[in-house]
Amino acid sequence: MVILNFSASGIAYSGTIQVIIFSVLPKFMGRKACFLLTSIIAMIGFVVLYFAKTATHLIIFESIEGVLFACQITICIMIITEYSSPRYRGIFLTMKSASFMWGVWVSNAIGTYFHWSNIAVVGCVVTAYIIITTLNWPESPYWLATRGRLNECRVSHHWLKGNSDESKKELANLIERQTDLSRDEESDSQSLRKFFAVIRRKTFYKPILLSMLILTLYNSLGKMACTVYAIDIIQRLTGSESRAYTIMLVLDGVTIIGVYMGCAISRYARRRSFLIVTSGFGIIFLYLISMFLYLVSSGLLDNYVLVCLFLLLCYTVTVSSGPMIMSTSLVSELMPLSNRNMFAFLIGTFSNFIFASFIKIAPFLFTKYGYSATFFIYASIALGCFILIFIHLPETKDKTLLEIEKLHTDNNPKKNKIKKQSEVPKE
Predict the structure, then answer these.
(1) Which of 182, 206, 273, 380 has the fewest CB within 10 Å, making it most exposed?
(2) Is-contact 251 316, C-beta < 8 A?
(3) 423 — phi, psi (to 5°)?
(4) How far apart are CA 399 and CA 292, in angstroms?
């Protein structure tokens, strides 16, 4: 467990540092070039892993691969939200989360049945494919507009989203909005004063506080902690190491199925409602697991392994189909058009830090208080976040980034309807 704790949290803490770099670079390099850079760095990391012979080599690998944690909460969010239309943006964001769990399942399967260095081979192949395909991408129309490259912006926007009336209206609003933002940035020479002015705006502090709540909810539901320490948890529940590996792979497979179920449902369901319903059930199952383990440890109930595994299965499906994919989706959509780099830096730092901290503290809680109390603590933190999200989170489904940004200037976004794209007045 100590090795798992160091490995999982080490990459995340490394990513926290690299978020500083990769939340600033996209502003100057563009989205495409910055994503290529992170892919090349990731390739170098997998090469280091393949030839690793000592613990020092693994530490170097983890330090390099922190770029993936930094990238997925900064550049990837910018790319998906800026490159995709509102109609398909949600499904792309949820598919992004699904691909992460495929990586976990494939890595666990390789580590169980083959030599661990084969994980590096798969990583190199996938990264090489990403680099080749990225070379054929256009640059983000949002970034091109802020640079005053309007002809390139139009070409890129048409390439990505077509020439429909809806697309043309979005492009017109985009050019006007982004060029205004660019002029504002150039005219403001006092960066410190600007920083404090920005963080006081509702369009900045409201989405960032909501994003922090959503990320805390997801991490406090404990899915990633259970994934990282699955072998140890299942082995203690079943008393069999060989059975623990098999159950771990089954639960990973169920997680992937749950993620794709969530992707399909999210295509039609409202974002806010779907997150609330699935998170609510996840919290309930987490409390039930805690209660079951307490009754077993107190001798009030026999250790029915199948009952515990059934509760774990239900918990896995509800959390993987909802909070696991919707957290990234909602955070991405809440990211304001203005000051995206500052938002990416703050939320990226917070995301990696809280992920690493929950992973880091889990073994201490398991050892000090036991599994029952740990699951109870996690569920209680999640419940607090759940209540605040239920009160304050607006609906973002099928809204453009401009419309979502306008939601945060409304004191009661749930009661007041936002105009559709065709009705948004030009500012």
Answers:
(1) 273
(2) yes
(3) -100, -5
(4) 43
